[in-house]
Structures are given as structure tokens and as C-alpha cells.
Amino acid sequence: MTVRVARWSAEHPWRAIALWVVFVAVCFVGGNAAGMKEATGADQAVGESGRAEAIVTEGNFADPAVENILITSRAGGLDQAAAKRAAADAADRLRQVTGVASVGTPVPSHDGDALLLPITMSGEREDASDRVQPLRDATAEVQAAHPQLRVEEVGGPSINQALDETLGKDFKRAELLSLPVTLAILIVAFGALIAAGVPVLLALSSVAAAMGLSTLASHLVPATDTTASVILLIGMAVGVDYSLFYVRREREERAKGRSGLDAVEIAAETSGHAVVVSGFAVVISMAGLLLANDAVFSSLAVGSILVVAVAVTGSLTVLPALLAKLGRWVDRPRVPLLWRLTAPRTGPGGRPAAPRFWPAVLRPALRAPLATLVVSVGLLLALAAPALGMKLNFPGMEDLPRTTPAMQAYDRLTAAFPSTGTSHQVAVRAPAEQADRVRAALTELAGRAGADPLFAPVEADGPKIEVSADRRVSVLELATPYAGRSDEAARSLDELRDDLLPAALTGIPGVEYAVGGEVAGNQDYARHIEEKLPIVMAFVLALTFAVMVLTFRSVVVALTSIVLNLLSAGAAYGLLVLVFQGTWAEGLLGFTSMGAIVSWLPLFLFVVLFGLSMDYHVFVVSRIREGVRAGMSNRDAVAYGITSSAGVVTSAAIVMVGVFGIFASLSTIDMKQLGVGLAAAILLDATIIRAVVLPSLMTLLGDANWWAPRFLRQKAAAPPADPPAPTPELVGAR
Asked: Rounded to two decimals, what is the model's pTM?
């Protein structure tokens, strides 16, 4: 099928190119016209915290956006009279600002070193950060009028606006850097500008089409904020990989003297087939995320599947058309020094000349396969060992970059008013006639909690209890003075869930309750991931095994591919724990350790790494099988497959490592962990796994590599191209 599609595209290049352009344009324009449906908080809730959110939602509470004017002294104690004058000035100014619904009464801190003026905004809470700038401007005017004090605005909308500006610049920088970095690596890999530009063109067009399709798909599976970033990340990686495999094989065949059409057909039969198999493996891995029953993972799965499917389609259709139309122009214009280093070289009889570097790397695996296998696997297992101590947690406010005035003001706010920091949300549903008993029980609960050092003292105006209009839902906010992921905050949650709340509500008929909030959400989500990870892993492993068996007609090849990819993923997990659960790398990578790995990362990393690693594995093993089918011995076929594919695999890996490394430079801890985990895993996979572990293992197994039950066996087809004779260095290795 791949050959037939490639032949049609090569024979009708302008039609194929035009169809691709129309397809990308329709997807992109259609997606923008349809608009995106975003996942709500209720979609993303899990566990008891999810039940708490559902109860609160049923109460239909007004949930306005709230800002605060924090007044503190720049040095020493706060002058209360000056602070009250500044608060009155701020109240007068803010009442005149469009978007302010009401201004509260100034509240002093317990120690008298701060004064807080609450501001309630009008309009919807979701877009309050887009409307908060006039309030910030008025606050700046108050600050200018009272220079002896520190007057700051802090609240959810202002923090979100500041973070959007900071993180938006981060992502824009990452997106702008990823293109030139990818192009530069490809220029080094090909030594020619057009050859380097073709993979980038396919990747960018695939990303554009997938963005539009994912927008349409969001009406079935709601999207999240990270979907577009993941589409860009995965799309650039697989789009460049697939076209890189294809272009390198087409150039190799032309270097042997084949015509342009023949070279395209052979590339389609070999690299094109490998692209289809590896693309299907990536799709299977990403589909495993759907089993997590989680809105975030479902959104990421849909986006990733779409971009991979589009990239595979492009590599089978428009890529052969471009190569056929360009012909030998694909190697123009040449970069003089790089061209001499990277151009396909031929030896006697038109065979590709033997490489020099990779035979030297392979020599230990071929001469002493058992010792090489034991040492290399031992190193990978040692690197994976720290993963046994992995801790999962969500990043909190304390993990956000403190480079913005809004976050610095937040720290001063929570220090002066602990109840404005981390809090537990107690949601209670009961018959309307029990509303008074519920309020009394919650008031007593707040008093008991306020006397416990794990909770913040109750404010002077009493506990924060809201009751719905129908009196069926009551909500109590209980604050803790500790950071969201601290052990003390976790203990306060356990005490509230296990003891305080059940005891307070005992005896009230028809009562239902749950505890939500930041701490509860973190713990519930980490538990959710721990429960779903084995299910997703089992699904991905089982289907990947089936695909590999059917592709290579070998049970042994399928098993070894699973084991090697598990080694790669395990080493990446261990490296993440070493880097991010400790503090030694904080200065090197510019982060503050949270003592844990971001909750969603292990599951997402597993499926992404398993899928992307299959790209290299399928490509390398396909070249080894070519050698076996051409009559080579197993050892010579392993040498041929590794040496003939090492250059393109290395180039593809460097592209991925470069793009993922850019994400490791972002400000947020979750993006840093994602970038480091992906970059490290791909680097390990393309070097130690494919150049050391794989050849030593396949050399040891010999002809057993290709064992399969009788019903799976089929007559081996003739190889599409004669592999070169084994190099003298590798012959000597025997």
C-alpha cells in the first residue's frame, strides 16, 4: 500500500501537493471557525475532591473574582493611621473603576503589621484576569500617593495575568527557538538547505492541520490549556523523524544510481513501511491515555493521535511528491564542508561506502555480546533504581516563579493572613430542613479546627460558611497555614476527612459530604495516577507486542522491543527522581525542588517515550531484517542494520533532544521535568539502547531472533535493495 500511494504521488506530484495544501487549509480554517470547547474544572476532578466540586457546583453559588489591596510597611512596624488613610484612598479610587462590584472593609492582620482591603470584581470569574488591569493601574496610583508604604494588589486574577505574561513569553520563546534549532540540526545532518527544509515543512504543516482537527475534536473530548503545546512538541518530533527516515533512504538509493521514481518507491517500501508501523505504535501508546478516565489525559491523547496520524499521512503522500518533483535539487544548495561530511558515499560496485565511526562503537557488542549486554543493562538498571522512591505531587503556588511582583506580594499576603493561603473546602449536601443543624455543625467544626495547630485560627468575623439559595448545600472554607504539598497540610486533610468532619456531622439525616481544595485535589490525583498507571501500561505493552509480532513475524523481536523500551522508560524515571527530588541540580537548571515529580508526568512520559522509542526500534530492526532476508548471517545483519541506520537515528534523536531541551528551560517545574525527562530518555534510547544493548542482545540470540509460531510464519519477501557487504572491521570482530 505504501508503495502504491508513493508511486501515485511521485507520478502526479502537483496533484498530491495541491491536495495536501487543501487538506491542511481546510483543517486549520475549519477548526478555527468551529472554536474550541475547553474542559471545565468538573471535567478534571477526580476522587473525593471531585465529589466536593460536584456538590459545590450543585449549590449554584455566586463565585465572583476577588482581588486584595495589601498595605504593609517598607521597614519596621506599620503606621496604622497612614495605612488606614491609604486604604481609604484605595477604596475611593477603586469604586470609580469599571469592573469593580464592591469594596470591602479594611481588615488588619493579627500582628498589626498589614492591612487588607478586599475588592470584588463584576463579571465572570473565568475571564477576570483579562479585566484586572484597570484595578492594577488604580493601585499603582495609590502607591504613588503613599510612597512611605508598600501598596500592592494581589489576588487570583492579578496573579493569573502576571503568570500569563511570564509563561506566555516562555512558551513563545520555546516555539520560536524550536524551529531554528531543528533547522540547524537538519542542515548539519543533510549538508543541504532544501533537504533540511523538507522535514521542517512537513512537521509544521502536520502541526497546523492537527491543531485544527483537535479544535473540532474538542467538541467531543474537551481540550485543556496544554493540548496545543503537546501537539507542537509531538508534531515537530514525529514529523521531522518520519520525513528524515524517508529522505535519507531516498538519497541513499539515488546514490546507488537508481532513478528518482525507483528511489522513492524503495524508500516507501522500507522507510515508509517503518513509518506506518512506528506511527501506529505511537497511536496505540497515546490511546492508552484514554483508559486513565481523565479529561487532561484524554485531551492530550486526542491531540497526539491526530498529529501523529497527520504526520504519517503526509510522509506517505506529499513527501514522495516533493522528492519526485525536486529530484536531485533536494541536495541543493549545499553547505560545502557539511556536504562532504554528510553526503551518501558509494564504494565499489555502487554500494554505499562503509561508515567508520559506528563499526568502532559496535565492536564490543559484536566481539563480547554477553559482557557488553550485562554491563550496559546493569548501568541502565542502576540509573532506573531511584525511580522506586518516586513521590508524586502537584505543583502549588510555592512552585511558581517568584520573578513577578504579583507572586512576591502573594508571599507577603499569606505571611500576614494565613487564612488566605492554602485551604480545605468542606462541601455538605443535606435536606433543606437540616440546613440550620448543618450550619451549627460546621461552625463547631471550624472552632475545633481553629484550635488545632494544623489549621489557621478562625478570623475575627467568624468562619466562612456559604449556604445555597435552596438551603441544600453548605460550604465551609478551612485554612491551613502550611504550604499545599507540605506534610503538615496533608496531615490536616487526613485529620479533617477521617475524624473532624465525620464527627461533626454525625446524626444529621440524609447528609452527604466531601472535602476538596488544593491539598485534597493533589492527593486524590496522585492516587488516581497510581491506580491508572498499571492499567495504561498493560494496555500499551499488550497492543505494542501484538503490532510488533505482526510486523516482524517474530515473537522474540516483539519481546525484546518491549524490554528495551521499558529499560529506556525506567532509566528516564530514575534520572527524573535524581534531578528533581533532590536539590543538587537547582542552580544548574534554575528551579526550586518540590521534593516530588509532578503527578501527571509518569503516566504521560511512559506513553510518549514508549511511542517515540518505537520509531527508532522499528527503523533499526527493519534494516537488520533486510540484511537477514538478503542472506547475511545474523551477526553481519546486525552490523549492517545498526551502521546503515545509526546516522539517521542519531540525527533524529538530536532534533528531539534539542526541542525537548528547550522546554526544560521554561520557568515552571512541570515543563522543566517534562523537557528533561523526554530529552534524557531519547538520548539514552538512541545511544545506549540502540547502539549497545540492542546489537549485543540480537547477536547473542542469533537465529532465535526470528522465531515465531508456525501460524505466524510467512515466506520472506525479497529485500527491496541489496545490503552492502559487511565492513572489514566488523568481519574481523567475529
From this structure: 0.78
